Amino acid sequence: MVRPQRPNGPHVLPQEEHTGSYYAATRNDLTTYSELNGEVETDVCIIGGGFTGIATALTLVERGHRVVVLEQNRISWGASGRNGGQLIHGLGGSTRLSKFLNDEQLWALHYRGNDIIRSRVAGYGIDCDLKTGYVEVAIKQRQMVGLEADYEAHQRRGLGDHLRLLDRAEVTALIGTQAYIGGMSNDLNGHLPPLNLCLGEARAAVEQGALLFEQSEVLEIEHGETVRVRTAQGCVVAQKVLIAGNAYHRLERRRLSGLVFPAGSFIIATEPLEDDEIARINPQDLAVCDLNNVLDYFRLSADKRMLFGGRCNYSGREPRSVEA
Ligand SMILES: Cc1cc2nc3c(=O)[nH]c(=O)nc-3n(C[C@H](O)[C@H](O)[C@H](O)COP(=O)(O)OP(=O)(O)OC[C@H]3O[C@@H](n4cnc5c(N)ncnc54)[C@H](O)[C@@H]3O)c2cc1C
């Protein structure tokens, strides 16, 4: 048999373990899954074991479909295992979706992700320190205007009781800084360590019958009556394929190149804070985001570290200062 070649161009090396992050050091499930060897037949083959791939796999097996997930490194190795951990309502692509859904249907999707996560954490007993409470903070007056409009939109849908518009002094009381001119709290949002959520969902998917393979980079997708998804040591024969590889894959370049690009943001974890420090800077254990496009976001970890994220680059490379 001729082994498929890797697509040309720069590429993430296969078979990496998790990055040396705080989340990886505090993951509470050390399960690993074997590499794909030989041929497996399934209904849906999912390429990529992050939130997109794993949440979809769980949904499909819950509905009785056979699913195989192929992850080139470890489950949740990518963005899903190293993000801000902020559980925030919202919806991307609403302009496109508005061709198919009316306003109320679109609005219902804003909190659908939060609801799914909460019900999975409770239903499958996922151990991920899920916290409730969030505040968006404004630096500019026009950001306050946006918050007021959002508040009214929530009120119109009967959700106003969950939100509170805040002036500068009220934000200062919540997070101990006068840097913001105001904000809005929302107790429908919250925060959690994302790697532990994704690992918990992966375990649930396996318990429901999904097959997960790690260190199994997909090198080639061969289309036909069924689809053949090839790795170095094996092949999945599927009715359908979902590419959930985020900005890390280079598959189907003719159709997909240029649609996704890397956007890097970086998070620092402090030493655990003292109780009096927490009382000053985040006594209610809220997730916090400012409203800039390149935003700062922060929250406390379960062991009381400040996890502070910000900055952005689009090169796909880590800045040298990250090691400092
Ligand atoms: C710093 C940062 C902070 C963020 N903060 C938040 C936040 O607070 N809240 C929030 O909701 N979102 C946040 N996000 C966004 C969120 O992390 C992503 O939207 C989400 O994780 C994307 O999930 P995914 O499964 O699509 O991609 P990923 O998690 O990146 O998973 C893709 C997976 O596909 C695998 N893969 C790629 N190519 C192949 C191949 N050929 N074969 C096999 N496997 C392959 C990769 O190894 C990877 O594991 C943040 C993102 C970043 C980077």
Automatic annotation (TrEMBL):
CC annotations in GO: cytoplasm
SUPFAM superfamilies in the cross-refs: FAD/NAD(P)-binding domain
Region entry Disordered, spans: 1-20
Domain FAD dependent oxidoreductase: 43-319
Protein name in the entry: FAD dependent oxidoreductase domain-containing protein
Organism, scientific name: marine metagenome
